[in-house]
Design a protein that fits this description.
There is one protein chain. By secondary structure, this protein is α/β, with parallel strands linked by helices. About 35% of the residues lie in helices and about 15% in strands. Strands 1, 2, 3, 4, 5, 6, 7, 8, 9 and 22 form a ten-stranded mixed β-sheet that branches.
Length: about 700
């Protein structure tokens, strides 16, 4: 069935010659954990039972791990000894920190042990479960993972984790890393007469209060002779309307698209809707009704609506309240607009604690709203969030969830998930090669900062530039990614400005070519750029503020500092001078973020949210969450850039437009006076009337 030669030459003996299983490794695993401790020791046990086909391939998959402290023990019963007794004897002889039982024929995915061990240490978990890839003679059938939420293992849900998504691939434990202490406390591991682990261990682990962590990346491939064929995945799909203002451009639009992809990988059908089709940014302040959209939702039999940002097309939440009558609304808080009268980031606002009103200090800032309408907008949102069956606000970071709870009315439903990122695009590559391709200096330490608008004041650009000027020296260069409205304000030596990058593959190359990602922003509900950079092996230095405390895992994917330019300078300087330190952070960042922010990992959080509303079966009803085989495309290295993800940001504007923007900034700064907004609205109405008249003539 499987053989070592097949694994060594093409590590996909199931016949699918694509996926995350043959990825070339561009960086070496650090010799110790980020905090300086040794990696925990792991013993992989394989019982050589009567059906030990594929044992050679299993051995090869273990030996190919880059893990520094692993032993592979093939348990062979002595004469007259039962398999269970042989396993118990091997366990008793092991003093390793963790145990993984791998059936003969199962294959570990590269770096599976490092990912599982890092999660175990980071979360203090007794067990770590990853994605299991189930395949048969026709190829990959599906991918699944335990549905138990992270944290203390529940006894009821633990008893459901016994079969695959179609019942043909029973639990064998190969995707589960278990602490030896928990195994001993639970009374050991039982196996059947063929040497495969039994699921009886799970209820016993629950009884002792074991903690489980989940990682959203493949860990093991398991062969199931009678599993479903690839064209008939056993997944139950919902019908979803994905709604936002302007589609998939800009930071929030990009995040929205990635959540849509995660839903589709889980077998759900998603229809994309935009408010822009019935509105315009110039009309957003005055439009709140979207009759065509409401008709489509009312007749579309949607199971739920996944809403993103709407303030680019309307300043009112009335559209979501209307749609919520037809299907449950799950609104992702890419910012805090749904919790305020009008603003997206009410940082330091003293009035918001008492309710937004006409005294709003930033009513002329985007998203602008006439002062006299702010209080009603706030009250309408509060009423919507506190309905009998309220919409679910989905926060993308711990900070955003806490802030939402502080601003929401009593009874509001607030959940937190991890956002999805295309880990197949944002991935480590050879840095020297990238620099030659991008015409960057090969030996300099390059610091990158990135945003849709690179010099936006909301991203802390003034503070950041002051920091970067202090660390500038020969051998240090800077890369500014994004639109730059005032190039003369930078005054940085050795500066490279590729401008707005409109496709993710090119963006990933720039990240990967640099050594350190830096941000001084203090207005992020999450902060996507630190995660994108970290997936490319580039660590981040940022302030310990807002959603960045989730985006950057301190000491694992980068370094967080006090909100002080001196602290940021010290941290950046430290990494400039410590090549080994930043390289180690880059390797660990990739492993940690792939496990936490893959499409599959993000969907695990979405699934838990859906289960709270009864839209999908909960852990007590189904033991495993199933994905289509296509989810593996989100881990495979891209052969060519996907044209569907270009245009993620606007291209560089014409010089004349940049000049107009600079003049506007000089006169009004971030503000846009009401009389100017009314002129734009009048022009919009005039254009719409002319188009209508032209249509009548034809």
């Amino acid at each position: 069935m499987l053989n070592v030669e097949a694994f060594e030459t093409a590590p996909l003996p199931h016949g699918v010659q694509d996926g995350p299983f043959a990825r070339p490794q561009t960086m070496s695993l650090p010799g110790c954990l980020p905090d300086g401790r040794a990696w925990p020791s792991i013993c992989v046990l394989t019982v050589a039972g009567p059906k030990a086909d594929g044992l050679a391939a299993t051995k090869a998959s273990v030996s190919s791990q880059r893990y520094p402290r692993v032993r592979h023990v093939v348990v062979a019963p002595r004469q007259g000894e039962f398999l269970a007794a042989a396993l118990a004897r091997s366990l008793a002889q092991s003093d390793d920190d963790f145990i993984l039982v791998l059936a003969a024929g199962d294959l570990l995915v590269p770096d599976a042990l490092a990912a599982a061990a890092l999660a175990a240490v980071t979360h203090g978990a007794d067990a770590v479960a990853g994605l299991r890839v189930v395949f048969g003679s026709a190829g990959i059938a599906y991918v699944d993972i335990l549905s138990s939420p992270p944290g203390r293992l529940d006894p009821v849900t633990a008893r459901t984790a016994v079969a695959g998504c179609d019942g043909s691939a029973p639990f064998k434990g190969g995707e589960i890393l278990l602490s030896r202490a928990a195994i001993e406390k639970a009374g050991g591991i039982a196996i059947d007469e063929e040497g495969e682990p039994l699921a009886e261990l799970w209820p016993r682990l629950a009884e002792i209060g074991a903690n489980i962590a989940l990682i959203g990346r493949p860990v093991v491939l398991q062969f199931a002779p009678v599993c479903s064929t690839p064209d008939k995945p056993k997944v139950h799909g919902l019908v979803v309307a994905a709604l936002n203002d302007k589609g998939f451009s800009g930071g929030a639009g990009i995040a929205h698209r990635r959540l849509v992809e995660a839903l589709r990988y889980a077998g759900h059908r998603v229809e994309v809707k935009t408010l822009e089709s019935e509105s315009s940014p110039a009309a957003a302040e005055w439009i709140k009704d979207f009759p065509r959209l409401e008709s489509e939702i009312a007749t579309g039999n949607f199971d739920f609506i996944l809403a993103g940002n709407i303030h680019g097309a309307t300043r009112s939440a009335d559209v979501l309240a209307q749609l919520h009558r037809h299907a449950p609304v799950l609104a992702v808080t890419h910012d805090l607009f749904l919790l305020t009268g009008r603003c997206a980031h009410p940082s330091g606002c003293a009035r918001i604690a008492f309710g937004c009103d006409r005294f709003c200090p930033t009513s002329t800032y985007y998203p602008q709203l006439e002062p006299g309408r702010i209080q009603k907008a706030w009250r309408d949102k509060q009423r919507f969030l506190a309905t009998t069956v309220p919409p679910i606000l989905i926060a993308n970071s711990t900070w955003a969830a806490d802030r939402a709870r502080a601003l929401a009315p009593p009874g509001a439903a607030i959940e937190c998930i991890d956002l999805a990122f295309p880990t197949q695009v944002f991935r480590p590559r050879d840095r020297a090669t990238l620099r030659r391709e991008l015409n960057l200096p090969e030996d300099d330490v390059l610091l990158v900062f990135a945003a849709v608008i690179a010099d936006a004041s909301s991203k802390g650009i003034e503070d950041l530039l002051a920091v970067l000027r202090r660390v500038a020296r020969p051998g240090v260069g800077f890369v500014a990614i994004g639109r730059i409205d005032d190039p003369g304000a930078f005054r940085l030596p050795n500066l490279f400005t590729p401008g707005p990058i409109t496709d993710e593959d090119t963006l990933a190359r720039w990240y990967g070519a640099c050594d350190i990602h830096v941000t001084a922003s203090q207005l992020e509900t999450l902060g996507q750029t630190p995660i994108e950079a970290g997936l490319c092996g580039t660590p981040t230095v940022a302030y310990r503020a807002t959603g960045l405390t989730t985006a950057v895992i301190h000491g694992v994917t980068g370094r967080l500092t006090d909100v002080s330019s001196e602290a940021l300078i010290e941290a950046v300087t430290g990494l400039i001078e410590d090549r080994a330190g930043r390289d180690a952070l880059g390797v660990i960042a990739r492993i940690a973020l792939e496990s936490r922010n893959s499409h599959a990992a993000s969907y695990l959080g979405l699934h838990r949210v859906l289960a709270t509303r009864g839209l999908v079966a909960g852990p007590a009803e189904v033991g495993r969450i199933c994905f289509t085989a296509d989810v593996l495309n989100s881990f495979a290295d891209s052969v060519a850039p996907d044209p569907s993800v270009s245009g993620t940001v606007e291209p560089a504007p014409h010089a004349g437009i940049r000049l107009v923007r600079r003049v506007k900034h000089l006169i009004w700064g971030r503000a846009m006076p009401l009389w100017v907004r009314r002129l734009f609205y009048a022009a919009y109405l005039l254009r719409r009337q002319i188009k209508w008249m032209q249509g009548q003539r034809t």
